[in-house]
Structure formats: C-alpha cells, structure tokens
Design goal:
Blueprint: E1 56-63, E2 68-71, E3 76-78, E4 85-90, E5 93-100, E6 104-109, E7 116-126, E8 128-133, E9 137-147, E10 154-156, E11 162-166, E12 171-175, E13 195-199, E14 203-206, E15 210-215, E16 219-223, E17 226-229, E18 233-238, E19 244-246, E20 249-252, E21 256-261, E22 269-271, E23 283-286, E24 290-295, E25 300-302, H1 306-309, E26 323-325, E27 329-334, E28 356-358, E29 362-364, E30 368-373, E31 378-380, E32 383-386, E33 390-395, E34 401-403, E35 406-417, E36 426-428, E37 432-444, E38 452-453, E39 457-460, E40 467-472, E41 477-482, E42 489-493, E43 502-507, E44 510-512, E45 516-518, E46 521-523, E47 529-531, E48 534-535, E49 540-541, E50 546-548
Parallel strand pairs: 1-7, 6-8, 7-9, 8-10, 9-11, 9-12, 10-13, 11-14, 12-15, 13-16, 14-17, 15-18, 16-19, 17-20, 18-21, 19-22, 20-23, 21-24, 22-25, 23-26, 24-27, 25-28, 26-29, 27-30, 28-31, 29-32, 30-33, 31-34, 32-35, 33-35, 34-36, 35-37, 37-38, 39-50
Antiparallel strand pairs: 1-2, 3-4, 4-5, 5-6, 37-42, 39-42, 40-41, 40-43, 43-48, 43-49, 44-47, 45-46
Length: about 550
C-alpha cells in the first residue's frame, strides 16, 4: 500500500501501512462495493453504510490542542512518544501511530483484518489531519476546529468507509487556505488532494452535532467513493469549486445540509460517475432531510456523459447518472448567467446554472422542492417523471422543466414557471409527454403538447399577472392559480376538472375557501368560492382529456 514520502523534514513513521493510491479506491478492487447487488438503487440503501452494523473495538481520543492521546481499552496502550511519533500498542505490536509531520498530524491504523477503530477529535488545531486505515473506521468530531494553512483540513488517504460522526451537542469546523502544496506517496506519485474534507473512500455522515466547512481552494467535501448524510447539520461555503463532489453517488436520508458557492465558483452537489466492470456508479438519491443550495453553477447534477468521459469502449461498465427525489425539503437558487461557449479554442467553459440535472432519468415521488434558477429548473437527458411531492420551479431565462427525452406527470403538485418564448414551463424534446394525474400548471412562452392524457388537461393561451379561475355553470371552482407574471402559454390539469362538465375561464376577482396554496396554486377547492373577475373564454365542455380553451 502506498504511503507518503518523507518531505520537508517529515519525521519517521512507526508501523505505517498505507491504504489506496494516488488515484483513489476502486470499486472493482473489492475494498469498497464490489457488485451492483450491494445497492438498492431506488433508495440508495447499502447495508455496509450502516454505522450500527460496524463494531469499533477501540476508541482513540486526541485533544488537538494538547495532542494528549487516550484510549478506550487498557489492551490498547499508548506508548512513549519518540521523534514526534506516538505508537499505540496492542499486545507487543504497534497497530496505530499518531505522528506530527510538516503538514500537521497523521493518524495511521494497521489493526488486524476486521478490527475497526474510532478516532475522536476535539479542540482547536492549526494544520492538516491525514488518516490512513486498512479497515473502515469512525471519525468522530467532538468539538473540533481544524484550520489548515496548506491543503485539506482532513485528508483521508484510505479507500475504506469513513463513518464521520458529529457528536451530539458539539459544534465543529474545518477550513483551509489558498495554499495547497503537492504531496507525494512513497512510490513517487502525487497524493490525491481534492477537498477541504477529502477521502479516497466513502464518507458517511451521522450524529446530531454540526459541522461548518469553509473551502478556499478546492471542493468543500470530496470523495472518490460515495457520500451519504443520515443526520446532523452541515454548512458549506465554497469559494472556488463545488460544495460536494463524489465519484460514485450522493445519498441523503436526513439531517440538514446547506451549501453556498461564490460567484465564479462551482456546483452545489456534483456526482461525476465512474466506469467499473462490476459496480459502475454515478447517481443521486434524496430520501429525506432539509437541503438548501445557493450556487453559481448547477445546484445538483449527476453529470457523467459517455461521449466526454469514457475511458473504455464498452457500455457495460458505464454508470447510470440518475437522480431520484423521494422526500425532504429542498430549496435551490442558482445565480450564474447562462453561457454557451461555441469557441472551443479559447479555453472558456459553458455555464448552465440548472437546478437539478440528471444525464439519465430524473424521478420525483415526494418531498417539497422550491427551485429558482437562471437556467433550466429541472433537466434530464433521458426522462422526467413526477408522481408525488410538491414541486415549484421558476426559471428566469430558460425552461422550468426540460426533458431531453420523455416527460410524465402522474401525481403530486407542480407549478412550473418558465421564461418567455421559445422557453416555457413544460418542455419534452421528444414530444413524448404523458399526463395521468397530479395537480399542475406550466406557463411561460410555450409548453410541449401532451401526447397522451388520461386526466383532463386544459391548454390555455396568454394571460397577464392575475388570478385565473376555472369554474362550472353552478359556480363550483375546478382550478385556480395566481398567475405571477404575463405569459403566452398555460397548460394545467387536475382531477377536479370533470368529463362532461361545462366551464368558463375567468381572470381576476376574489377566491376564498381553498384549504391551502402552493406558490399561487390553490388546493382543496371543494368549498372554494369565486366572485367577480372577467370571463376570458366562452363556455367549454370537457369531452376529451386534452381541451384547448379559446379566448373570447
């Protein structure tokens, strides 16, 4: 296993055993996830990610201010410090070393196979904490504040799982500077350094404490494996690159995550994807929790593209860069100016500050999403399918919902507000657009025409910023929405629009009695009443599932 060279007068390491090379751990190596069968791709579940399923035989506590070291068991003895290295001895063997080096502190675990250690860090420290381990380990932050003047604050050079625990009641912080010196492994290759908190392997966050990360140079949190958040509060400020970057996957099951990237910086959450013979990964799943992203570039993207990134000619080892939202409260805002670079010789990059992007399929089954973007709000290279949840999307310069393949609405609540023509609210590039449920409206300069409707849908023309109400001849309200700004196209649908009923479209007036509203969309209309306003259509009867309503 590769280890760092002695550089800048670094001290001799006692009992070092490395983990991982400069290129990071590989799923095909058997050290992380060896098969696709390890994963439930619907929820992102993986039994090996469960903290409770791992027994940590020993705890090593390190007070970063005093460098005092304690252990949880008398069987693991703290040896005598020599030349900056403190050995931890099990029986007659050194199994862990804690070494002060030129960059900071290095922790190295060489425990027997299947024996796991928990490192618990507390106190304030100036320097970088580097970790090596041949087995998965726990990294508990117990009121730790680490500031690195050179490189990552925490640098995990192991492709094993790192269970990062934010101890209850504690506030923790990690920060770096703009100085990142090149470091080398013992074979002469450069050490992989990509984030303020970087790991060659999976990063799995839990615990009810908090962690603030300030990234000055590179990504805030980066893993060459996957990243999972189950609980705790993490706040990220990134000045130059992405808030979160992972090679294989990002999964959120709970907790609170806020990300802010500066002007000219990167994305909120990006999963690159990675080819692999046995476990090609590159997906994003959000099951629960509170996620708040303000980003200059894309907020959430599963970005792998075969034509750009493939290193093999086979498609069997290609990842599926899908995004699935099952729940949670997601708030997104992007602020970069969209830019399409047509000159490939000038070194400039295009900028597409989309809200949620999947290069494969984007699926929303639940949760509350509130997305405001300068580019597409929702974008997919394959299909977009919305079957539940409450989704609000506003794009100021492009489509609110844009599928390069198919678009299907079968449930949930959706308000999609796009820019003026040729952009719009609901765009299905292949014109395979199905509607079978949900309460929704898409408006802007244009909407794609549904190709299949099993729920009654209305295609409406232009409108000013006003209350639009659809009510039948008895005055019963079937649909009501506060149009936020002038538009030239509207498409809406609801189970309350009934076949055989005759309706009239009104603009303005007063609506009362709806049970709730979602970004102007009135819900629970069984007792709603509408008065005043101006009829903007003649009476029309629902005889087909897609009805074009003509203005007066």
């Amino acid at each position: 296993m590769k280890k760092p060279l002695a550089v800048l007068g670094c001290l001799f390491f006692v009992g070092l055993v490395g983990c991982g090379g400069s290129g990071g751990g590989s799923t095909s190596s058997g050290t992380t996830d060896s098969t696709l069968a390890s994963w439930d791709f619907d929820t992102g579940a993986n039994a090996s990610d469960q903290l409770a399923s791992t027994t940590f035989a020993y705890t090593v506590g390190i007070n970063l201010e005093t460098l005092a070291i304690t252990t949880s068991s008398p069987a693991l003895a703290v040896g005598t410090t020599s030349s900056g290295t403190t050995p931890l001895i099990l029986g007659s063997s050194t199994v862990i070393t804690v070494t002060q080096d030129a960059y900071g502190l290095t922790l190295d675990s060489d425990l027997p196979d299947g024996v796991n250690v928990s490192f618990e860090l507390s106190g304030t420290y100036t320097g970088s904490v580097t970790i090596y381990s041949g087995e998965s380990f726990k990294l508990a932050f117990n009121g730790a504040a680490i500031t690195s003047p050179d490189g990552p604050a925490v640098n995990i050079q192991s492709d094993q799982r790192a269970f990062v625990v934010l101890n209850a009641g504690t506030t923790n912080s990690l920060s770096d500077s703009s100085t990142w010196s090149t470091r080398y492994l013992e074979d002469g290759t450069e050490m992989d350094l990509k984030g303020t908190l970087f790991s060659e392997g999976p990063l799995l966050f839990s615990g009810s404490g908090s962690l603030a990360i300030t990234a000055a140079k590179k990504h805030a949190i980066c893993s060459d494996g996957h990243i999972r958040l189950t609980e705790g509060s993490i706040g990220i400020q990134s000045a130059k690159k992405d808030g979160i970057r992972a090679n294989e996957a990002f999964i959120m099951d709970g907790g609170n995550l806020s990300i802010s990237t500066a002007e000219g910086a990167g994305k909120g959450i990006k999963v690159e994807g990675k080819e692999d013979d046995t476990c090609p990964l590159g997906f994003i799943v959000i099951n629960d929790g509170a996620l708040d992203i303000t980003s200059y570039d894309k907020a959430i993207t599963a970005s792998w593209e075969a034509e750009d990134d493939a290193t093999t000619t086979s498609v069997e080892d290609d990842p599926d860069p899908f995004v699935t939202i099952h729940g949670g409260a997601i708030t997104i805002s992007t602020f970069g100016e969209p830019y399409e670079d047509t000159d490939t010789s000038d070194g400039d990059d295009s900028l597409s500050p989309e809200g949620i992007e999947s290069k494969s399929n984007l699926t929303i089954t639940g949760g509350t999403l509130e997305i405001t973007t300068t580019d597409d709000g929702l974008n997919a290279g394959g299909a977009i399918a919305i079957s539940g949840g409450s989704t609000y999307v506003l794009s100021t310069q492009n489509d609110a919902v844009d599928s390069n393949g198919t678009l299907a609405i079968s449930g949930g609540i959706l308000v999609a507000v796009g820019a003026s023509a040729p952009e719009g609210g609901l765009d299905a590039d292949t014109n395979a657009f199905t509607i079978s449920g949900g309460t929704f409206i898409g408006l802007g300069g244009a909407n794609s025409s549904p190709t299949s409707c099993t729920q009654n849908t209305l295609r409406l023309g232009s409108s000013s910023a006003s209350l639009m109400t659809v009510k039948d001849t008895s005055g019963k309200v079937a649909f009501a929405f506060q149009v936020p700004s002038s538009c030239t196209a509207r498409l809406c649908g609801s189970a309350d629009i009934l076949t055989g009923s005759t309706y009239t479209l009104y603009s303005g007036g007063t609506l009362s009695g709806s049970t709730s509203t979602f970004h102007g969309l009135h819900l629970g209309l069984s007792s709603a009443t509408h008065s005043g306003g101006t009829a903007t259509s003649n009476a029309f009867t629902i005889s087909n599932t897609l009805t074009t309503v003509s203005s007066k």
